[in-house]
Amino acid sequence: MSKLTLKTEGDRYIVVTRRFVAPPEAVYRAHTEPELLQKWLLGPEGWAMPVCLSELRPGGKIRYEWTDGKGGGFHLTGEYLELEPFSRIVHVERMHLPDPTPDNRVETRFAPDGDGTLMTMRMALPDAETRAAMLATGMEHGMEDSYARLDRMS
């Protein structure tokens, strides 16, 4: 059963919420530290992230490369815009499939929720067409596979 909820706002926004059993500091670190990202941000079973760059500062570069171990794969590039340790990350990202997608501005908040964390991720896409294409990928399934893996690390 998925714990992730995905909603749309207006024509350009996607809002994802999910509760984690770990405290905000741990969930924030899992979203920013390469050695942790490579353990959980993998999507469906069988994928790996051999390259993970996360320069944790405003203007710092992000690069994640995934492979399915069978010759398939893709990567993501981006930049951090704002960082509030343990509570908020704002970054821009683009998927390379192989051509880059339009920029996706992502704000992720980590709030205490009982003994865990409520994560709220708000994605701002350039237009309705880009958002529709992103939603058509079924991205929420890979996201939840990854988030369930993160929960098991806690």
TrEMBL record:
Domain of life per record: Bacteria
Organism: Bradyrhizobium macuxiense
Protein name: Uncharacterized protein YndB with AHSA1/START domain
Residues covered by the Activator of Hsp90 ATPase homologue 1/2-like C-terminal domain: 22-152
Family affiliation: Belongs to the AHA1 family.
SUPFAM superfamilies named among the record's database cross-references: Bet v1-like (SSF55961)
